[in-house]
Amino acid sequence: MLTSKAKYALRAMLDLATQTGAGPRRPLFIADIAQRQDIPRRFLENILLELRKHGLVISHRGKAGGYALAKAPDEITFADIIRAIDGPLALTPCTSRTSYQRCEDCLDEAVCAIRKTMIKVREASAQILEGTTLAEAASRGGAKSNRKAARLD
Hints:
The chain is mainly α. The protein is built from 6 helices and 2 strands, in the order H-H-H-E-E-H-H-H. A two-stranded antiparallel sheet has the order 1-2. Helix 1 packs across helix 2 (30-37), helix 1 (4-20) crosses helix 3 and helix 1 (4-20) packs across helix 4 (78-86). The longest helix has 18 residues, at 113-130. The N and C termini lie close together (11 Å).
């Protein structure tokens, strides 16, 4: 299940995408994003720091400072954001493309029915999440200037 932190991250990123549009990515204040999206400010600060660490947002200091998307909205996918916050998309470690680990209790991965099914799940969800950009979601009305339009739950 998607964590609240990842949902908040998606809402904040959609807010950044819709507020700045396709033009120059001007920084937005954390307080403004937090208010529009009804996200606790301290929690949002931590989320934005994590997104910055993963190269998805940039921060600007000073009086006109704030956060902006590090790339164009059509270059950032839902999968990028979820992986930055929650880690791999796969439900089991043995099916992850980015953080593969063999399951300790697995006798033979080649015949494991659980693994084979979880690979299908990962592929289907990854296809959707990797194929959905902030620009696409925002154009479908994925985030307006209030949180009700951007609800992901």
